[in-house]
């Protein structure tokens, strides 16, 4: 197993620390380093990158603003001296949040999360059928029918697909999975996609499906109400 990574950091000393830490971990391959998010965008467009070590306070474009521009980001570990952005950062499904000065032992905890993520054996196929999606579970193919899916939730390190009978976890980005779903599914929040066929109740703020209440994101409200015919 190898994890190809980049470091986005504008402080030379902090950059040196991260490069030294990465070089001590055999399965981490440091592809590039850069000092701002604009350069990082170029690297991501030109290289296959599995993991970003990302500072928050960057010139030109802040770290979290940079993440919001990425349609299908790789794994992300935040590195910063500011603890107040920790909760907000998890809205972007980051793997971990490291506070400077970073100790190597704490760095290894974060890196191990990345390794565990890569080693997960459950992932979605890139070729869905008209009836559902195929997943690999314990080296066997398992089909999840579209009609059985209740909702899909983007969690901190993975996507959770809740069906009528079970729950499946996969590493695919929610935005990427959304492309493979039929029109009977609706994005209602940064973290949620629901089956319109499973909706029991809906109001201005949330949707109920099988007794589960899910929030409607502010930026999705008009689109959701239009799709459901709500005035």
From TrEMBL:
Describe the location of the HTH LytTR-type domain by residue ranges.
135-230
* Protein name in UniProt: Response regulator transcription factor
Q: Name one GO molecular function term.
A: phosphorelay response regulator activity
Q: Which UniProt keywords apply?
A: Phosphoprotein
Response regulatory domain location? 4-115
Q: Source organism's superkingdom? A: Bacteria
Entries under Pfam families matching the protein: LytTR, Response_reg
Using the record's annotations, give every residue carrying the modification 4-aspartylphosphate. 55
| PANTHER family reported for this sequence | STAGE 0 SPORULATION PROTEIN A HOMOLOG, TRANSCRIPTIONAL REGULATOR-RELATED
Q: Which organism is it from?
A: Aequorivita antarctica
